[in-house]
Amino acid sequence: MQPKLTVHSDTAAPNAESARHVLSLPGTFTMHLGGELQNVQIAYETWGKLAPDRSNALLLFTGLSPSAHAASSPADPTPGWWEEMLGPGKPLDSQRFFVLCINSLGSCFGSTGPSSLNPETGKPYALSFPTLTVEDIATAAHAALATLGIRRVQVVMGASLGGMSALAYALLFPGAADVLVSLSSATHSEPFAIAVRSLQRELIRSDGAWQGGNYPSGDGPRAGMRLARKLGMMSYRSAAEWLERFGRERADSAEHEPFGLEFEVESYLESRARAFVGGFDANSYLYLSRAMDLFDAAEHGGTVAKAFKRLKLQKALVVGVETDILFPLHQQCALAEGFERAGIATQYLALPSKQGHDSFLVDMDRFRPAVGDFLAAL
Amino acid sequence: MQPKLTVHSDTAAPNAESARHVLSLPGTFTMHLGGELQNVQIAYETWGKLAPDRSNALLLFTGLSPSAHAASSPADPTPGWWEEMLGPGKPLDSQRFFVLCINSLGSCFGSTGPSSLNPETGKPYALSFPTLTVEDIATAAHAALATLGIRRVQVVMGASLGGMSALAYALLFPGAADVLVSLSSATHSEPFAIAVRSLQRELIRSDGAWQGGNYPSGDGPRAGMRLARKLGMMSYRSAAEWLERFGRERADSAEHEPFGLEFEVESYLESRARAFVGGFDANSYLYLSRAMDLFDAAEHGGTVAKAFKRLKLQKALVVGVETDILFPLHQQCALAEGFERAGIATQYLALPSKQGHDSFLVDMDRFRPAVGDFLAAL
Asked: What is the pTM for the complete model shown?
């Protein structure tokens, strides 16, 4: 499908990102907790073809930091963040589904976010960007699909924040999706996860280079982002994985600054954190991170049970991982039970993956069949 | 017992800390990984009376941050950090034991540490303080007890870092203790704990006020210490405790800085972190924190099993907590099994406390009987 009218391929990086489309939402976008945005842009990529009866759309939301480039395609052959999961013959089979991956509202990979220019001032929104919620991410995606003429998707899915966005989509727009797939996500954030993310945000804000959010475009609090990413890695992976992988192996480091790297696990965190810095806008990180804390499905009805009564899903798949400390298994179990009680045919899988919250990105041997078998049976 | 000769009551704060004694170790103190200290001071407090045959000494090592003031006494009626555990009729019964609590070498509550004046320069050691190990803490305590005429203690014990110090004491000085009590400790640090502490140290070092360790006495990297303490709290407590205690309760805060406190768990961390800052020397924190990472009992024989063959303990008690993510239960289990295999009569208790690593400080209803019954049966 080639979208028309307000849609254009991204021209910022024509070679590297020629698979990325950007569309404009018509009119004023009103935020869930107040505030408005004008001229909202939503970036997305697609794989496969929309069936003539428009019945095969699969809407994929991302976690906090990925772009819409979930997988390679003829238009952009570089590997995506879910390369092993999406494509011809893969679990998200592009020979069967028309897959759309949306860059979340508030992010920094083509969709409108704090680093975007405010059309009213000509300057980046920075902290004048209104409070972002998961509901806004879902609403912007829904409006984007409407612009593309897709009123109903067969499957809405996502992992982590993406699972929250998928759930918000199903809650806000009953009937707009038939099937929901939630991976390592939850109906709300628990205090440990809030604490981790709160400290990450504080590390970014504590970096003088943040300048109250008004850092120069493309620059920003690199040291704070690096520290926040290290803390993130501690919550994304698991102690069991690191024990097996690193044990007490010493770092092979030429650096000898006082209290510098001694152990391989420290070296690993340093290299992962350095790789992350510069690729993600700090203010987007703050807004998306807080949106995860704020999300609570119970607010859509008083309790989760009441909220879920409005759902018009036919089926759901809920997958969690035993070693996840950010979205622990008991939250996956509660989510699945909530779906069941709401009369939705639900499959619940508790995977023994060792890589914690990040398992959906790395433990492909478990996640491929978990998702693939479910989607194949639809 | 009133120690003589090189021992004097601390004169720095005569009213508040009149229970604190400080003794000087004779000669040069050679550090485990190299380097020397002259005129080492060791601060300690005592409870109860040493029996005429000197058979009832109980040596208590502390965790990373406490002073030697474990409990109140006539000389200092202010509550100590283990007030409910130590005193007449309490688990560490001062009517039976002569309890000595030692301020660790490298700390900042009377014992020589990085904030002490180097007698050769007249300035604080700061980063010229040699690399500190758990072995040094144990050796300094052993020398202090020798100065007091105590060559053998009935019990050596400690929690967290204190448990490591107690184990190092038993390994380095076989026969110097009959019984070992290890609470929420381990033979070594695993990569997750190393990662947490490494980032804590980096947060302190990243604070410009640290000045490469050369901050003015009594001042220092307050912001870095506050952030490090927040991260510490995440590793000291448990997600289960916070879920029960805070849920999604909102903060009752008058502050409205951008991305400031939204949830009660954030407010709790902020208040706990603020209370900690200023009370602990930042360089001491760095040295003691790294000492925990570096400790590995296996280095005393090639393997833990070989190292433990040198132990001359008669009995051991090993207590751990199910929700501890810093010193997880499988490490307690391995420690207890190691003692058993070395022929030491060992009692192992896995407590279902909800407060994580800090449970030994707060879940007194479980830790009092766990420790008290064991000691009473000696």
From this structure: 0.94
